[in-house]
Design brief:
The complex is a heterodimer. Chain A has helices at residues 55-63, 105-114, 120-133, 149-161, 179-196, 207-213, 231-236, 241-246; strands at 14-23, 32-40, 44-48, 70-75, 78-79, 90-93, 167-171, 199-204, 216-221, 224-229, 251-261, 264-269, 274-279, 288-293, 312-321, 325-332, 335-343, 356-359, 366-370. Chain A is of the alpha+beta class. Chain A has two domains: 14-241, P-loop containing nucleotide triphosphate hydrolases (Rossmann fold, 3-Layer(aba) Sandwich), CATH 3.40.50; 252-370, OB fold (Dihydrolipoamide Acetyltransferase, E2P). In chain A, strand 1 (14-23) and strand 2 (32-40) form a beta hairpin. The two termini of chain A are 19 Å apart. By secondary structure, chain B is mainly α. Chain B folds into four domains: 16-58, no CATH class; 64-134 and 266-293, no CATH class; 138-262, no CATH class; 320-540, Orthogonal Bundle (MetI-like fold). In chain B, 66% of the residues lie in helices and 1% in strands. Chain B has helices at residues 18-58, 63-68, 70-75, 89-105, 108-118, 122-133, 138-147, 154-161, 164-176, 189-194, 196-211, 224-236, 246-258, 265-272, 280-287, 295-300, 320-351, 354-365, 372-383, 388-395, 411-434, 440-447, 452-480, 484-489, 497-506, 511-535, and strands at residues 303-306, 309-312. Classes of the chains: A alpha+beta, B mainly alpha. Chain A binds chain B through residues 63-65, 84-86, 89-92, 94-96, 98, 100-102, 111-112, 115-116, 159-160, 163, 169, and chain B through 438, 440-441, 443-452, 454-455, 458-459, 462-463.
């Protein structure tokens, strides 16, 4: 496990801290294995991972609906392991919104204020402000069932924010929306979060969502954080083959390290070709490695190859016109699923299936990562 | 190709209007649907709706009085039941006529039972007078016999009053030696017009003799009543004798001249039972003479008709209002207990992992697999004075041997057993509604700052209300009509109105009152349903 993100020292400004947290439901297997994570105040942190990776469990432990089997969760420096959910003061947006169907929108929003014994006039003002914030000012009298999915989502957000929590948790809040609405809400949620200066822990399995919304992303797999980094680091400098594969589109080539020399290494692919790569988590000659290259970093224009760089022969198998980009599938070094993406520019060549071309890349875009087990 | 859509009325491909085509196409489906429900419909109609309709009709039907005592009812029409004196002689005479016929038909006892529901003593009064009424006019018959021995011959009466054609037919039948199938008696036109009253009474006598007693009027001495009527009629209009010929004319003229004394029906009834000299029995007959009566309904709410109008029954006879209230109250208590006990179980059922939930569900449904009678009897074994619970309590020293708890043959017994029996009817609707409430609502409420109680009360509970509504209405309606369990467990103080209905159907045979009680019960349930709809909303009821 590696962290390439900015390391934070444990200190008073660590707003949320997971310290050696483990979780097991059945006493046999660990769903969350030794989680250490600290979130500074005001950060938008996303927990990203496939289903069953432990991200939702972490969120539920933070919310108080699950108890950590061992380890400590701290909020503002205070251990909250034994604090019941309703005393944690954490706002939460649920996957299916969980708007109370028997209450109107305004009553839903007033609920957290009522249980906090806030006076009627102040309550109404806050509810209206929260509704205005999500541009739903006119909908206070409606029932949740009379709202569209996107509107319900806004109300759920407003309800989680109306009592002014410093920390808001969101559990795949946009999962049920269609693509366009989802993109709009992604923007809106980040805007509101930054405007209010709240700390957000956001769970999703949608990498685009994670990349576009977050300050930092924690990629979960198998109960562990695989990488905790900013979206750009995560995409451009994946720390291991899981992250490389999980985030964005990725071309994989399997091979063995034949030479390693500081910032670069030479990898002999299984097809026998040799290429330059940047060693990330290979350490010695003879290591099995998975080469990871982003499709948009593959160059087919010979003029742009760097002097002395290794190039590979490729056969065009398929050309897909996607409007803004072209997507070309190639056979490279024995792999049929090598994809390149090129911008739809007037001078761009449209490769016809069957033609043979040469592909190359900058060594720093070609990362030698750990080989997944069994390869 | 023709353009169908362009034509004014849409036509189908074969040129028929589209609507007709559609109807024809759907007719088969409708017919099939109807055929599928037809057996149940017929079954329900004949075994359920029709009997219920008949039962409801019985609650107001009262034709027995006017059918049994037609003349009396007519004679009492002008008499005021509120008066202090009995009616005039005409009413006594009419009752005398009606009773003679009723006694012959043996309907006076049924009438007595009917009137006894309204005023006790009517049954015995009618029975005793029924025994005496046939003897009224014995002296007249004797006097007639003394005047002319021919009057003691059945044949004289037949010859005087019967249609000659019938006499001939009867003679032919008699000669044929047949034992059955005697020709039905017919009055002669002469007698009917000259002596209408006598002819009518004799006609009744002849019919009853033939039909009820299976005898021939030619061999039976007529009732004394016939003799009384003849004497009175011929005395009043001696000229009637001239309508007849020969011996008959002479005999009738002799009666007219003999100036036989008129029969005093008032005295005769007074001699039979001095209550006839009071207005009470007459008032009862007069008040219940209409073919339809609210009497059963009044009775069912502890009211009764008096000559002065509708008034409460004597305190010691008031039972039904108390029973209705008790039924209502106990049913509400049982519904409340079922809700109290069932709600947590339903919640567990809806929230446990499916394995445990299935096991629990089997336990909930287990009572359904046991006969109601067995379950009730089991409670009897548990609760009685020498029962298991008392034994255990005595054994562990909590109560002394003579301080054994009385848990049966009272309301407590009914409540305990019925709560147990009706509990699944509460749990199942609750469960099926709770099953649809996702756990995230409670979590959301807690995350918003609500503690466990207010999360439950403000978020979970309101959403379970449709289940509560469904379960409560189901249990309450089942409870309000429950019969077996209160009968076995309730003793005298724990019985329901349905037990009283059963008593009137099976034991006292006062079906009219049973029907009225049943109708009121039905109406009460409908009213409660309406109230319930106003306050809870029937559309809020969800069975799943």
């Amino acid at each position: 496990m590696a962290e390439t993100g900015p390391l934070k020292l444990a200190g008073t400004d660590d707003f949320v801290v997971f310290d050696g947290v483990q979780k097991s439901y059945d006493g046999i297997t660990l769903v969350v294995k030794d989680l250490n994570l600290s979130v500074p105040k005001g950060e938008f942190l996303t927990m990203l991972g496939p289903s069953g990776s432990g991200k939702t469990t972490c969120l539920m432990m933070l919310a108080g609906f699950e108890t950590a089997t061992s380890g400590e969760i701290r909020l503002k420096g205070r251990n909250i392991n034994t604090v019941p959910p309703h005393k944690r003061g954490i706002g939460m947006v649920f996957q299916n919104y969980a708007l109370f169907p028997h209450m109107s929108v305004a009553e839903n929003l007033a609920f957290p204020l009522e249980v906090r014994k806030i006076g009627k006039s102040e309550r109404e003002a806050k509810v209206q402000r929260a509704l205005d914030m999500v541009q739903m000012g006119e909908f206070g009298g409606r029932r949740p069932a009379q709202l569209s999915g996107g509107q319900q989502q806004r109300i759920a957000l407003a309800r989680a924010l109306v009592f002014e929590p410093e920390l808001v948790l969101m559990d795949e809040p946009l999962g049920a929306l269609d693509k366009q609405l989802r993109e709009q809400m992604q923007f809106e949620i980040t805007r509101i979060a930054h405007d209010l200066g709240i700390t957000v822990v956001y769970v999703t399995h949608d990498q685009t969502e994670a990349l576009t919304m977050s300050d930092r992303v924690a990629v979960f797999n198998d109960g562990r954080i695989q990488q905790l980094a900013s979206p750009s680091d995560l995409y451009e400098h994946p720390a291991n083959s899981f992250v490389a594969q999980f985030i964005g589109e990725n071309n994989r080539l399997m091979g063995t390290v034949t030479r390693i020399d500081g910032g670069t290494c030479i990898v002999r692919l299984d097809s026998g070709d040799e290429i330059d790569a940047k060693p990330i988590n290979v350490s010695k000659v003879g290591d099995r490695t998975q080469i990871s290259i982003r499709p948009e970093r593959v160059e087919t224009n010979k003029d742009r190859f760097r002097q002395g760089a290794h190039t590979l022969q490729a056969e065009v198998l398929e050309f897909i016109y996607m409007g803004d980009i072209f997507r070309t599938r190639l056979r490279v070094a024995g792999h049929d699923d090598f994809v390149i993406k090129t911008r739809n520019a007037p001078d761009q060549i449209r490769h016809q299936p069957g033609t043979r071309i040469e592909v190359g890349w900058l060594p720093e875009d070609c990362r030698a990562l750990d080989a997944p087990q069994g390869t | 190709m023709t353009d169908h859509t362009a034509s004014a009325a849409a036509l189908s491909a074969d040129g028929m209007p589209l609507k007709r085509s559609l109807n024809r196409a759907l007719r088969r489906q409708k017919l099939r649907a109807f055929v599928l429900i037809a057996p149940l419909l017929v079954f329900v109609l004949f075994t359920f709706l029709a009997p219920i309709g008949d039962m409801l009709f019985r609650s107001v039907e009262n034709q027995i009085v006017s059918e049994t005592l037609p003349r009396t009812v007519k004679a009492l029409a002008d008499w005021d039941p509120a008066s202090d004196a009995p009616p005039g002689e005409a009413a006594f005479r009419a009752l005398g006529h009606d009773l003679v016929i009723a006694v012959e038909r043996k309907t006076h006892t049924r009438l007595g039972s009917r009137l006894n529901y309204e005023a006790s003593g009517m049954s015995s009064l009618l029975r005793s007078t029924g025994r005496d009424v046939e003897d009224i006019g014995e002296d007249v018959s004797a006097a007639l016999g003394a005047l002319d021995p021919a009057w003691t011959e059945a044949a004289t009466w037949v010859d005087l009053l019967a249609d000659p054609a019938w006499i001939a037919e009867q003679a032919a039948w008699s000669a044929s030696g047949n034992r059955s199938g005697e020709p039905a008696f017919r009055l002669s036109d002469t007698a009917s017009s000259a002596l209408p009253d006598t002819a009518e009474i004799y006609g009744s006598f002849a019919r009853i003799t033939q039909q009820e007693n299976d005898r021939s009027p030619t061999r039976q001495d007529p009732w004394h009543l016939v003799a009384i009527t003849l004497v009175e009629e011929i005395t009043a209009t001696p000229s009637a004798a001239q309508a007849f010929q020969g011996d008959h004319a002479l005999r009738l003229a002799a009666i007219a001249q003999a100036d036989l004394p008129a029969t005093d029906f008032v005295a005769a009834f007074g001699a039979s039972n001095d209550r006839w000299a009071t207005p009470t029995p007459w008032a009862v007959i007069a008040m219940y003479s209409a073919p339809y009566t609210p009497g059963y309904f009044l009775n069912a709410v502890d009211l009764g008709k008096t000559p002065d109008g509708i008034a409460p029954r004597p305190v010691e006879e008031q039972v039904y209002i108390l029973l209705f209230l008790r039924t209502m109250w106990l049913s509400l208590t049982i519904t409340g207990l079922c809700l109290l006990l069932g709600y947590p179980v339903a919640w567990l059922l809806a929230n446990l992992p499916s394995r445990q939930a299935n096991l629990l569900m089997i336990l909930v449904l287990l009572p359904f697999w046991t006969s109601l009678l067995v379950r009730t009897s089991a409670w009897k074994v548990l609760l009685q004075r020498q029962g298991v619970i008392n034994d255990v309590l005595v054994w562990i020293g909590l109560i002394s041997d003579d301080g054994r708890l009385v848990m049966i043959n009272n309301q407590l017994g009914t409540i305990i057993a019925m709560t147990h029996i009706l509990l699944p009817f509460m749990i199942l609707p609750l469960y099926s509604v709770m099953k649809t409430i996702p756990g995230t609502y409670m979590r959301a409420a807690k995350s918003l700052g609500a503690n466990d109680w207010s999360a439950f009360w403000r978020v979970y509970f309101p959403q379970s209300v449709p289940g509560i509504a469904a379960g409560s209405i189901l249990v309450f309606i089942l409870a309000i009509g429950y019969y077996i369990t209160p009968e076995l467990m309730g003793g005298a103080r724990g019985v329901f109105i349905s037990n009283r209905i059963a008593y009137h159907i099976g034991t006292s045979l006062n079906w009219g009152l049973a029907a009225a009680l049943g109708t009121i019960l039905l109406l009460v349930v409908l009213v409660l349903y309406w109230v319930y709809d106003r306050f809870v909303g029937v559309k809020n009821v969800k069975f799943g």
